[in-house]
Write a structure and sequence with these properties.
heterodimer; A: 22 helices; B: 473 residues; two-stranded antiparallel ribbon
């Protein structure tokens, strides 16, 4: 069947839902239910994490194709099947999702006291959707998971969020939905053109150049909102500020990656000509994002908002990397995504720690925390450095590779992209100084407690992974080496023979051009 | 002459007459028993539909094919669900009279005939049998001013639509010399030879039918009738008659006028766009959940019509899948709406749902599932309904329609989300009265169907495929 001997991807995808059903069936008084829900959710997510580690061990990095493939008949007569599989690009995102879910559950152990059962249930549903999305090898199935994420996230922001949660939840939902429905039409057009929605087939299908442009724009509508790229990023700061800590972690850690993953998985390999045509456009938006949102971050008074804007800037670097179409750029983008997934999640957790204690995210509310919270200050400093991209942390590798990749395309692109690192250092250090250093003058901060053992448990794996990624990146890059190289070669071939594309597709029987041109 | 083809209709009619006699002769509260007999009759009819054979009888006026069977099953399912929902509501509202299930039963007989009609005359008879029963049902709470108003409005506008339809039929007959669907299809095989008079007749027929599915611009009666009628009647309006009218519309457009697709396609496109836009925008400002559902149903008909606008078997299949999904969603939603009751009084403001997630988590969950599904969010069933019609639209190259469709679905998502917001994000108010088991049953059934449709879509889609194919001979 596959290297694991059982349908491991489906198991990883659907197991959280089973855990959710168990949580639903818990009876008793509120405290019992809450405690049972917490433990069930934690154990479920840990088992899923363990299973995804099996995936990690059994995965063959030398193979650039899809592994652990499962294919089940689902929708008849349509060429739409329930198909799952991972390659070097998606496997690490699966791991990222399964890693961050238990972290989130631990992080909300005490801070969520209201409707705990529903909270844990939505998180497990969210995990199913995220993992399923990265594993899906059928475009319709992908779309279902991609958009299914909206429901739990909407509830997480809206039910457990801050004062303006309703506005933020609606903004988040409607922004992403608008993009997604346009993508749905593009997916249907591709399905119609190729006669199947199997991603492995679509990756080999040539689409006519005129069609590629429209498809690219439709994908752009969806993925750019999700990344988010300037100027459709405005939902992100709102959503981050209002979401509970764990919600922000998932938003920054996984949901933003879904957009970039979409560009990498679909736009670039399936629409090579259009991607190349639109690359300058993408670069422009990305550079604006890097420079502009970094400057905006510098002016923030709210910690979560600052980190949210820094996320937009970091994701701008990712989109630069993707559209360089060279190995360094794309590998850098991949690495930057993983690194950002860990680092920005950790930064949101860090904000969550003091928010739980003081119920404020205002930077001005804090100061001099180093006196009372030395361990906290250390962890905060570590992730500040990782966010800046200090060598030895994961942040450095990604940005460095992207800049190398960008340099091969255009010097100014590399320069402006690199500017993000400098501005990043400015706003992160400024944040750190205002929160941690200085004199501890505020009376109520004198009693603030340092990290609890539970919080240390939450941060320890994240610190270790960040260091590991920074010191020995090969253990991660080896996963996507083959896949990225293959993708770059594929792109180069497609660009070298733009005219043969239209000839090749004319002979394919599944194509009904008459319908397309009407 | 093969009268066994009409066995379900005949059996139902006899059951209806027997219940009438029973109701008149037996003293005391006989509404519950009458309802049970009616449900029994529906189940029996559903069984007869499944086991019956295909063919055409009564000199070609009545046809049984996979399409009619599919629609009949759906009509009966919708009728059973809404009758179950009416049990408790009618008791509470003092409408517990045995005439209620009987009227419903005769309306359903009319609908079954509509699904099988293959002649303009059968079409009209079925439609009128259905409509007359529905007019009475709308005014069933005869001491309530709003209900009487709804009944009257429905009757006046419905009669107007029937008149238009009849006029259209006479024009079609006058210019072609036949009322038979297959004959018409043969005559119109060369669309360029169709006389303008016949096209005018076609437009009138279309108008009459579009009125029945309440699509723009013939939708005006819907919000008032939905709001004014007793909720037990509203839920019935929202399910079975919609399916029956859609069945009729599909068959008339695809079979006799199938070759004239060029003549009616533009109209259907306009009606579809209008319904989607109106359904999305007009519902935003509503405060009554029943009015909101009325506008939502207009929007849903707009989406379903996308499938018809393509004029292909794929499109019809999309409509059929959409109707299946729609019936279960609507019945479930109305189960929740009927359960909105405080101190014995029905409440129907959206704000009455405030904080439902804390006072009644089960009902809030079901309601949220229906709302997300109506907004078309995967993996819920509403998404699949939309997926299939959009697939057909893309296949036929109807890009404008598809793009307007997906964009209005985003606008529509706003008001569906608003209900979820009221239930989950807002502070809780007083709890509703305990739910009777019948409402929980329908809400749970609809909820499970909606939530887990994605696991087993194949049988429904296969059936819809088979049904859609026969319309195109």
């Amino acid at each position: 069947m596959n290297a694991a001997g059982f349908p491991i991807l489906s198991l990883i995808t659907w197991l959280p839902l089973v855990g959710g059903l168990v949580i639903m069936s818990v009876r008793g008084d509120e405290a019992t239910v809450a405690s049972n829900a917490r433990w069930t959710a934690l154990w479920t997510s840990l088992i899923v994490l363990a299973l995804s580690l099996v995936l990690w061990v059994k995965f063959d990095p030398a193979d650039g194709g899809f592994q652990f493939v499962e294919d089940v008949r689902w929708l008849p007569d349509y060429g739409i099947g329930y198909k799952m599989g991972v390659d070097g690009i998606s496997i690490l995102f699966v791991l990222l999702s399964t890693l961050l879910t238990p972290v989130c559950i631990l992080a909300s152990w005490d801070s969520i006291q209201r409707s705990v059962r529903e909270y844990m249930l939505t998180f497990l549903i969210l995990e199913t959707m995220m993992v399923g999305m990265f594993c899906a090898l059928d475009f319709i199935v992908f779309y279902i998971f991609f958009e299914g994420v909206l429901i739990p996230m909407f509830l997480i922001i809206g039910v457990w969020g801050g004062p303006r949660r309703v506005y933020s939840a609606f903004k988040f939902f409607l922004f992403t939905l608008t993009g997604s429905v346009l993508m749905l039409l593009a997916v249907l057009a591709m399905w119609f053109h190729a006669g199947t929605s199997d991603i492995t087939v679509l990756l080999k299908t040539q689409f006519p150049a005129s069609m590629q442009t429209w498809l690219f724009l439709a994908f752009f509508a969806s993925f750019a909102v999700k990344v988010p790229m300037w100027p459709v990023h405005t939902w992100l700061p709102d959503a981050h500020v209002e979401a509970p800590t764990a919600g922000s972690v998932i938003l920054a850690g996984v949901l933003l990656k879904m957009g970039a993953y979409g560009f990498l998985r679909f736009s670039v390999p399936m629409l090579p000509q259009a991607s190349a045509t639109f690359a300058p456009f993408m670069f422009t938006l990305s550079v604006v994002a890097v420079v502009y949102t970094s400057l905006v971050a510098l002016a923030q008074e709210d910690m979560k908002k600052l980190i949210a804007y820094s996320s937009v800037a970091h994701m701008g670097v990712v989109t630069i990397g993707i559209f360089t179409f060279n190995v360094q750029g794309i590998q850098g983008a991949m690495f930057q995504m993983l690194s950002h997934g860990i680092v920005s999640s950790s930064l949101f957790l860090i904000v969550g720690v003091i928010y739980d204690r003081m119920h404020s995210r205002d930077i001005a509310r804090y100061g001099g925390l180093a006196d009372r919270m030395p361990k906290y200050a250390l962890v905060f400093m570590f992730f500040t450095m990782a966010s800046i991209g200090l060598p030895g942390t994961s942040g450095f590798i990604g940005e460095f590779l992207v800049i190398i990749g960008a340099m091969q395309v255009n010097f100014w692109l590399a320069l402006l992209g690199g500017l993000g690192m400098i501005l990043g250092a400015a706003y992160m250090l400024y944040l750190y100084r205002r929160v941690i250093f200085g004199r501890l003058t505020k009376a109520d901060l004198r009693g603030i407690l340092d990290l609890s053992p539970r919080e240390i448990t939450v941060f320890a794996p994240l610190v270790l992974i960040t260091l590991w990624m920074g010191v020995y990146p090969t253990s991660f890059t080896r996963f996507f080496d083959a896949a990225v190289t293959q993708m770059v070669q594929h792109h180069a071939q497609a660009m070298a023979a733009p005219n043969s594309a239209s000839l090749a597709q004319a002979g394919t029987p599944a194509i009904k051009l008459a319908g397309m041109q009407r | 002459m093969n009268w066994t083809l009409a066995l379900p209709e005949l059996v139902l009619s006899i059951v209806g007459m027997m219940i009438l006699v029973f109701g008149v002769l037996r003293k005391g509260d006989n509404a519950f028993l009458a309802s049970m007999f009616t449900i029994g009759g529906f189940v029996l009819a559903a069984f007869l539909v499944v086991s019956g054979s295909n063919g055409s009888g009564f000199h070609g006026q009545f046809v049984v094919d996979p399409f009619s069977s599919f629609m009949k099953e759906l009509i009966l399912a919708g009728a059973v669900l809404s009758l179950i929902l009416s049990l408790d509501y009618n008791r509470q509202a003092g409408l517990s009279r045995f005439e209620f299930p009987v009227l419903m039963l005769f309306a359903v007989v009319g609908m079954l005939i509509m699904a099988s009609a293959s002649n303009m005359m059968t079409l009209y008879l079925g439609l009128e049998l259905q409509s007359l029963a529905l007019y009475v049902l709308a005014a069933f709470a005869r001491d309530d001013l709003r209900s009487s108003e709804a009944g009257l409005k429905y009757f006046v506008l419905g009669a107007l639509a029937s008149g238009l339809l009849l006029y259209g039929i006479s024009l079609v007959y006058g210019f072609s010399g036949t009322m038979d669907f297959t004959q018409l299809a043969k005559l119109l095989a060369k669309p360029e030879t169709a006389s303008p008079g016949l096209i005018v007749g076609l437009v009138f027929v279309l108008t009459g039918l579009v009125f029945k599915i309440s699509a723009v611009p013939f939708h005006m009666w819907t919000p008032d009738v939905y709001e004014g009628s007793p909720t037990s009647v509203t839920v019935f309006f929202a399910t079975a008659p919609k399916v029956a009218a859609m069945a009729l519309l599909l068959r008339v457009m695809a079979t006799p006028f199938g070759h004239l697709v060029g003549a009616w396609q533009q109209l259907i496109i306009l009606i579809s766009i209008g319904s989607m836009i109106l359904g999305a925008l007009a519902a935003i400002g509503q405060t009554s959940i029943k009015r909101l559902m009325a506008y939502s149903s207009i929007g849903h008909m707009g989406y379903a019509l996308i499938g018809l606008a393509t004029g292909t078997p794929e499109g019809i299949r999309g409509v059929l899948v959409y109707m299946v999904v729609y019936v279960f969603m609507s019945a479930g939603t109305f189960a929740c709406v009927i359960a909105m009751r405080r101190k014995g009084q029905s409440v129907e403001k959206i704000s009455d749902l405030s904080g439902l997630s804390r006072t009644d988590p089960g009902m809030a969950l079901a309601f949220a599932v229906f709302m997300f599904s109506m907004a078309g969010i995967p993996p819920l069933s509403g998404f699949f309904g939309k997926l299939y019609v959009f697939m057909a639209a893309v296949q036929s190259g109807l890009w404008t329609l598809a793009i307007i469709g997906v964009l209005t679905s985003v606008v529509g998502a706003f008001y569906y989300l608003r209900i979820v917001k009221v239930m989950y994000f807002d502070a809780s108010v007083e709890a509703f009265d305990p739910r009777p088991a019948s409402l929980s049953f329908v809400a749970a059934l609809g909820g499970l169907f909606t939530a887990f449709f994605f696991v087993f879509p194949a049988p429904f889609i296969d059936a819809a495929q088979a049904a859609a194919k026969v319309l195109f001979g």
